[in-house]
Design a protein that fits this description.
The chain is an alpha/beta fold. The protein has helices at about 1-5, 20-35, 65-70, 75-85, 85-100, 115-125, 135-145, 145-150, 185-200, 215-225, 235, 255-260, 280-295, 320-325, 335-340, 355-360, 375-385, 400-410, 415-430, 435-454, and strands at about 10-15, 35-40, 55-60, 110, 130, 205, 230, 265-270, 295-300, 325-330, 345-350, 365-370, 390. The structure holds uridine-5'-diphosphate-xylopyranose. Belongs to the UDP-glycosyltransferase family.
C-alpha cells in the first residue's frame, strides 16, 4: 500500500498569503506522511522557502506581478490578477509534466481562492480537490452571497448593522464578511466565483473539525453534491514540523524567555495576523488600554500593521519606561509556541481562521476584534456560539479595551469562558485520535485519492 502511494505525486498550489500558505503546507505534510510524493506549485510572489521542506519538490508558476502591483494592491486584487495571469503558465507546466511523468498524478489540490485551476484541471481531465483554508461557517455565508444580496443585506448598509441576518443566526448585518476596500464588487465577484468552482470540484478539504462546525458542515453536505473532508486542525495533525517553518517572516523567539518570567495565565497575547492594519490613533488606544489593564502583554507589531508608522515611534515619551517589563513587543512571534505557553491567559486576535483554530487548540480564551472578510463570522462564533471569547463590540477606545481585557482575564464570566475553551481544546485533540472524526475523514480522503489513481 505505502509503495503504491509513493508512485503517486500530488500537486498542491497555495494562494500566496501567509494565512493560506501555512495550512496548505501543513496539508502537504499530512499527505506526505500518508506516503504520497508532493510538488508545491507556487507563485513568485511570496514564494515559500523550499529549504524548510526538503522532502517536497517546488515549482514556480510565473505570476506576472510587478513590484509596484505587489506593493500597492490589496489581497483581493492580487488574487484577482493571479487567477488571470497564472492560467497559461500552469497549463504549460501541466502539459509538460503530464506527458513526461513516470509517476501518476491522481489529483491537483488548490486553494479555493485560485478558482482558475478548475478550468485548467478540466482541460487536462485532472480531478481537482479544493483546500478551503477558512472555516465552514463563514464559507456557508460566502456561498449565500447572491441570496444575501437579493434579500438586501448586501452591500452592507451602515443603518442596518445591528439587524439580525434571518437565515444565519446569530449573525447580525455587521458580522457579514465584508472587505474594506473602495471596490466591494471585486470582492463579491471573487467570492461568487470561488464558491462556484468549489462546487465544480471533486471535493473540498477543510481545516476544521466536525465537532466545531457540525451544523455548517451538515448544511454544506446538503447544498454541495461533492465530498466534504473536515480533517483539521492541520497543525495538530502533523507528525513533524511547525507553523514557523511555513512562516514568511522570521519569528522573534526572544519573547519565549520573557513569557517564562510571567505568571501563569497572566499574559494577553496581541496579534492581528498577517494582513490587517490599524491607524496610529487605534494603535494608541490599544496601547493605553493594555497598559491601564495592569496585565502583562506580548504584542506583535508586524511591519505594515500601523499605517504610516514603522514601529513604536507613535507612543508618547515615557510610555515604555512606565511599562517596564510588563509589555513586550516583537515584529513576528512564534505564535503556536506562544499560545501553548502556560503564561498566556488570553489572545487578543483579529480572528483570522488560523489564529482562531490555534487559540482553540491551546484552550486560550479570545478577545475578538475582527477586521474584515471571514474574520467577522469567526469572531461571532468564538464569542456567541462556542463562547470561548468576548468581542470588542464598541469603539476601539482605551476604557473599552481595559474593560474587555478584565472581562476575559478576571471578570465574573472569565472562569466560564476558560472552561469552555478547555472543553473545546479537548474536542480539537480528540478528533485527531484514532477513531476521531478528522482521523476518519483523512482516511477517506486518502482512499478516495487512491481510488482515482488506480
Ligand atoms: C488571512 C485572512 O485575513 C483571514 O481572514 C483568513 O481567515 C486567513 O487569511 P491572516 O491575517 O493571515 O488571515 O490571519 P490568520 O489566518 O490568523 O493567519 C496568520 C498566521 O500567521 C497564523 O498561522 C499565525 O500563527 C501566524 N503568525 C501570526 C505567526 O506565526 N506569528 C505572528 O506574529 C503572527
Amino acid at each position: 500500500m505505502e509503495e503504491q502511494k509513493k508512485q503517486h505525486r500530488l500537486l498542491l498550489m497555495p494562494s500566496p498569503l501567509q494565512g493560506h500558505i501555512t495550512p496548505l503546507l501543513h496539508l502537504a505534510q499530512i499527505l506526505f506522511s500518508k506516503g504520497f510524493s508532493i510538488t508545491i506549485l507556487h507563485t513568485l510572489y511570496n514564494s515559500p522557502d523550499p529549504t524548510s521542506y526538503p522532502q517536497f519538490s517546488f515549482h514556480a508558476i510565473p505570476d506576472g506581478l510587478s513590484e509596484s502591483e505587489t506593493a500597492t494592491l490589496d489581497s483581493v486584487n492580487l488574487t484577482r490578477l493571479i487567477n488571470i495571469r497564472c492560467l497559461h503558465p500552469l497549463k504549460e507546466y501541466l502539459l509538460s509534466l503530464l506527458s513526461d511523468s513516470l509517476q501518476s498524478v491522481p489529483c491537483f489540490i488548490s486553494d479555493a481562492a485560485l478558482h482558475f485551476t478548475q478550468s485548467v484541471c478540466d482541460e487536462f481531465k485532472l480531478p481537482r480537490l479544493v483546500l478551503r483554508t477558512g472555516g465552514a461557517s463563514s464559507f456557508l455565508v460566502f456561498a449565500s452571497f447572491p441570496l444575501l444580496r437579493q434579500k438586501g443585506y448586501l452591500p452592507v448598509q451602515e443603518s442596518r448593522l445591528e439587524e439580525p441576518v434571518v437565515d444565519f443566526p446569530p449573525l447580525k448585518v455587521k458580522d457579514l464578511p465584508m472587505y474594506q476596500s473602495n471596490d466591494p464588487e471585486t470582492f463579491y465577484k471573487l467570492v461568487c466565483r470561488f464558491v462556484e468552482e468549489c462546487k465544480a470540484s471533486s471535493g473540498v478539504i477543510w481545516n476544521t473539525f466536525e465537532e466545531l462546525e457540525s451544523s455548517a458542515l451538515t448544511k454544506l453536505r446538503q447544498d454541495f453534491s461533492i465530498p466534504i473532508y473536515p480533517i483539521g486542525p492541520f497543525h495538530k495533525g502533523l507528525l513533524t514540523g511547525s507553523a514557523a517553518s511555513a512562516s514568511l517572516l522570521t519569528p522573534d523567539k526572544s519573547c519565549m524567555s520573557w513569557l517564562d518570567r510571567q505568571e501563569h495565565s497572566s499574559v494577553v497575547y496581541v496579534s492581528f495576523g498577517s494582513i490587517a492594519s490599524i491607524s496610529e490613533d487605534e494603535f494608541l488606544e490599544i496601547a493605553w488600554g493594555l497598559s491601564n489593564s495592569q496585565q502583562p502583554f506580548l504584542w506583535v507589531i508586524r511591519p505594515g500593521l500601523i499605517r504610516d508608522s514603522e514601529w513604536l515611534e507613535a507612543l508618547p515619551s515615557g510610555f515604555l519606561e512606565n511599562l517596564g517589563e510588563r509589555g513586550y513587543f516583537v515584529k513576528w512571534a512564534p505564535q503556536e509556541q506562544v499560545l501553548s505557553h502556560p503564561a498566556v491567559g488570553a489572545f487578543w486576535t483579529h480572528n483570522g481562521w488560523n489564529s482562531t483554530l490555534e487559540s482553540i487548540c491551546e484552550g486560550v480564551p479570545m478577545i475578538c476584534m475582527p477586521c474584515f472578510a471571514d474574520q467577522k463570522v469567526n469572531a461571532k462564533f468564538a464569542s456567541s456560539v462556542w463562547k470561548v471569547g468576548v468581542q470588542l463590540e464598541n469603539k476601539l477606545e482605551r476604557g473599552e479595551v481595559e474593560r474587555t481585557i478584565k472581562k476575559v482575564m478576571v471578570g465574573d464570566g472569565a472562569k466560564e469562558i476558560r472552561e469552555n475553551a478547555l472543553n473545546l481544546k479537548e474536542k480539537a485533540s480528540a478528533c485527531l485520535r484514532e477513531g476521531g472524526s478528522s482521523h476518519c475523514f483523512l482516511d477517506s480522503l486518502v482512499s478516495d485519492i487512491l481510488s482515482v489513481a488506480s
